[in-house]
Amino acid sequence: MPESDLPNDVDDAKKLSDADQAKVDAFLKRGVNSVERKPFKPLFLIFLLMAVVAAFSLLSQGIAQWAGIY
């Protein structure tokens, strides 16, 4: 058995039948799956997290100073 035929056999085994592919396509077009979303941006999430932590830190220091603790 030539090695070049092996990946094609594996690819053919993973393909769905037409009926199953139609069911998958129909599922992906309804409900929450039908909404187009922006791509996920992890750097934005990191900067947002840093900003929130910094804001809470400043707020806590301000409250401590206002209360006369610090």
Q: Indicate how many domains the architecture comprises.
A: 1
Q: State the distance separating the first and last CA atoms.
A: 78 Å
How many separate helices? 3
Query: What integer value in Å does the Rg equal?
Result: 27 Å
Count all strands and give the number: 0
Ranges where pLDDT stays below 50 over 5 or more residues in a row are none
What's the main sheet like?
A: none
Give the fraction of residues assigned to helices.
55-70%
| Average pLDDT score | 84
β-strand amount: under 5%
Order of helices and strands: HHH
Oligomerization status of the protein chains: single chain
General shape:
rod-shaped
| Structural class by SSE content | mainly alpha
Topology:
Elements: H1 5-14, H2 18-28, H3 42-67
Written description of the protein model:
The protein has 70 residues and is an all-alpha fold. It has one domain (5-67). The chain has three helices and no strands.
Summarize this structure as a short list of keywords or feature phrases:
rod-shaped, mainly alpha, 3 helices, 70 residues
